[in-house]
């Protein structure tokens, strides 16, 4: 039934079989010890020995702690500087007087080809409370995302994801729809952080609640904080934005399934780690700069 170079291992299993009424003995043969039972009792003994092995199997080692990137505050400082800088430039008359109208997410003009409004609208706010709310929320979620993915990568994903969401909203929304604000960027940071946490630890041996917890928490927070409030949409609540978020979530899950094997995930992670954080951060800032350049020239 069992063999081992140590008699103690056989004696432990002998005690198990004795407790369930199976006659067994330990014999020494060559350089190992053998646990033997009568042939008729073998199936019964095997079942109990397998159960004993399953109950005494060592628990899996705890998952390694997640990697934490330094200098997460840098992206938050630049985020605050961009939003306050744009607000100061508009209120102080440092740019064209119609710059606010040129940067608004206007669905009719987006559908006419003015794609840059998807980026410029992220930097515009209607009043001080609207700006303050997005500053606080953006710094909080942006800092947490930067700690997970690095400041440059996190903010590039945040800006690009928010701009693409705005672009979809402009292309698919009614022509009269207009919106401004960095709320979409806040939601993009939250979504990126939740998806990254879920995908990073998906392969680890853990209970289903821990595996799916980050994604579920992200969906709950998006639903809790993602309703269009006063000042976000200039033409009333955007009822179709929830459908866009659900579509984006389904696409993200499908993409994770496609690249979910360990080898592909390791290659993708290695590619991200080879790109300098300053380069991805500069790309995020450059995208906003290019968008405003196009807006002011239009």
Describe this structure in words.
This protein has helices at residues 7-19, 42-55, 72-91, 99-103, 107-111, 117-120, 128-149, 151-172, 183-200, 208-225, 241-258, 262-274, 277-297, and strands spanning 2-4, 25-29, 32-36, 105-106, 178-179. It is mostly helical and 298 residues long. It is rod-shaped and about 95 Å long. A three-stranded antiparallel β-sheet has the order 1-3-2, covered by helices on one side. Strands 4-5 form a two-stranded antiparallel sheet.
The main pleated sheet reads as: 3 strands, antiparallel
Strand content: 5-15%
Query: Roughly what is the average pLDDT, rounded to an integer?
Result: 79
Strand order of the largest sheet: 1-3-2
State the order of secondary-structure elements, H for helix, E for strand. EHEEHHHEHHHHEHHHHH
- State the helical fraction: 55-70%
**Radius of gyration over C-alpha positions, nearest whole angstrom:** 29 Å
Brief summary:
The protein is mostly helical and 298 residues long.
Task: Write the topology of this structure.
Elements: E1 2-4, H1 7-19, E2 25-29, E3 32-36, H2 42-55, H3 72-91, H4 99-103, E4 105-106, H5 107-111, H6 117-120, H7 128-149, H8 151-172, E5 178-179, H9 183-200, H10 208-225, H11 241-258, H12 262-274, H13 277-297
Antiparallel strand pairs: 1-3, 2-3, 4-5
């Amino acid at each position: 039934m069992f063999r081992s170079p140590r008699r103690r291992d056989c004696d432990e299993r002998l005690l198990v079989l004795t407790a369930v009424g199976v006659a067994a003995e330990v014999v020494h043969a060559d350089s190992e010890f053998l646990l033997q039972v009568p042939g008729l009792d073998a199936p019964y003994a095997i079942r109990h020995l397998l159960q004993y092995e399953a109950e005494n199997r060592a628990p899996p080692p705890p998952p390694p702690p997640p990697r934490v990137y330094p200098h997460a505050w840098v992206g938050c400082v630049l985020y605050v500087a961009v939003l306050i800088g744009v607000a100061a430039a508009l209120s102080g008359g440092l740019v064209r007087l119609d710059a606010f109208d040129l940067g608004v997410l206007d669905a009719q003009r987006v559908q006419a080809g003015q794609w840059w409004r998807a980026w410029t609208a992220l930097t515009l706010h209607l009043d001080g409370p609207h700006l303050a709310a997005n500053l606080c929320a953006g710094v909080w979620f942006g800092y947490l995302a930067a700690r997970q993915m690095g400041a440059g990568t996190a903010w590039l994903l945040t800006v690009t994801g928010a701009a693409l969401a705005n672009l979809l909203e402009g292309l698919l929304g009614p022509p009269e729809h207009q919106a401004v604000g960095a709320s979409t960027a806040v939601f993009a940071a939250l979504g990126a952080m939740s998806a990254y946490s879920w995908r990073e630890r998906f392969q680890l041996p853990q209970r289903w609640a821990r595996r799916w917890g980050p994604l579920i928490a992200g969906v709950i927070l998006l639903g809790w904080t993602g309703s269009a409030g006063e000042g976000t949409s200039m033409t009333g609540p955007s009822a179709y934005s929830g459908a866009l978020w659900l579509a984006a979530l389904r696409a993200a899950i499908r993409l994770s399934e496609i690249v979910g094997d360990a080898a592909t995930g390791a290659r993708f992670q290695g590619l991200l780690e080879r790109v300098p954080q300053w380069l991805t951060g500069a790309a995020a800032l450059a995208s906003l700069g290019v968008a405003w350049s196009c807006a002011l020239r239009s």
